[in-house]
Every structure is written in C-alpha cells, then in structure tokens.
Amino acid sequence: MSLPKPVMRGLLGKRLRFHLPIAFTLSFVAAAAFKYAVIEPRKKAYADFYKQYDATKEFNTMREAGIFESVRPSGE
Asked: Residue 51 — left, alpha, or beta (φ > 0 → left; ψ -120 to 50 → alpha)?
C-alpha cells in the first residue's frame, strides 16, 4: 500500500482562491477597527483640546517663565 501522489498542478491557484478573500476581509476589518479604536478618539481629543486652547495666554505664560531667549519677561 503506497501513499497517493500529491496534486501539484493548479495548487497555487486553488490555495489563492481560498486564502485571498480571507486576507482581504481580515485586512479590511483590521483597518476599520484601527480607524474607530484609535484614529477617531484621537481626532476627538485634539478637537476638544483646541476648542479651549488660547495660544496668546500660553505664550504669555512661557514668556513669564523665561523660556524664550528672544523675548524678555515683562518684569525685566
């Protein structure tokens, strides 16, 4: 009793017909999950931050702390 020969002709095409749709589906699901789990909350956090952000107030705070070399604090 011997083992049957493996079927090699058309093996790549047969495997691709099975695995390619699975790969595309999983990649689409992973991209959608990343978009809604990471990107959307990050965009919302940035939008919330910049709704309240006052650049002039932040600049004056840093100027008074002496961070800038080209702008002296108002006390000097």
From this structure: alpha
